[in-house]
Amino acid sequence: MSKKPGVKHIAVAGNIGAGKTTLAEKLSHHFEWKIFYEDVDHNPYLEDFYEDMRRWSFNLQIYFLNSRFNQVRAIQEGNFTVIQDRTIYEDAYIFAPNLYEMQLMSERDFQNYITLFRTMSATFGAPDLLIYLRASIDTLLKQINKRGREFETNIRIDYLERLNSYYENWISNYKAGPLLIINVDEINYADEEAGLRKVIEKVSEKLKELE
Question: Of the candidates 72, 65, 70, which has an alpha carbon nearest to the alpha carbon of residue 9?
Fold first, then answer.
């Protein structure tokens, strides 16, 4: 699949609670982009997963993989620039491997998952711009508690810490396309206009490089 001329794929990446949806919504409003949300509210596995990660890890990851693959297909086939709330790469390079390493996903399921991802990923390219939200565990926990999703009260701190490590390793080796890193500990784009303006300026600079 290849995008039509002028169509851009902007993606926001980051750990649970980093503020991806908030930033995606604000950038969507400012730049008049269409937004593709991560399927959380209608996800049939998410609540069960946090109750029993080992039982539901594979089901959850397959659901997310399919959901984001369909989003990528829609972006490639569409006539409009899209900002995506989390990427398909985070599923494959961060969440699934972390579950496997924590022995919360079996070897058989993990290999099945990775084979499926490789088949899918051969049909599309990386985002035109990846925005990574870097955040400390304290910030993640604060923002998770602030949004008050009941099923997230069971998230283990060691789970978030491992995810952060996977994210930092992935980003440090990311060569697929333009990358913008936003330090959420230092820039409050959610509540402060000055913080949002700073992020918009950084994004605008990156977009000019794509012209």
Answer: 72
The pLDDT of residue 148 = 74
End-to-end CA distance of the chain: 21
DSSP 8-state code for residue 150: G
Q: Say whether 39 is catalytic.
A: no
- Contacts (Cβ under 8 Å, ≥6 apart) of 106: 58
Average pLDDT rounded to a whole number, residues 183-187: 96
pLDDT at residue 85 above 90? yes
- pLDDT value of residue 149: 79
Q: Give me 26's structure tokens.
A: 């604000």
pLDDT in tens, 156-183: 899 899 999 999 999 999 999 999 999 9
CA distance 59 to 27: 31
Q: Which fold has domain 9-195?
A: Rossmann fold (3.40.50)
Q: Which residue in 39, 41, 48, 85 is the catalytic one?
A: 85
Confidence of residue 2 (pLDDT cuts 50, 70, 90): low
Q: Which of 86, 95, 99 is nearest to 38 (CA)?
A: 86
Gap between the Cα atoms of 145 and 119, Å rounded = 37
Residues 43 and 48: their CA atoms lie apart, in Å, by: 10
Domain positions in the chain are 9-195
Question: Which H or E element spans position 132?
Answer: strand 129-134
Q: What are phi and psi of 21, to 5 degrees?
A: -65, -45
Please list the residues that pair with 35 across neighbouring strands: 83
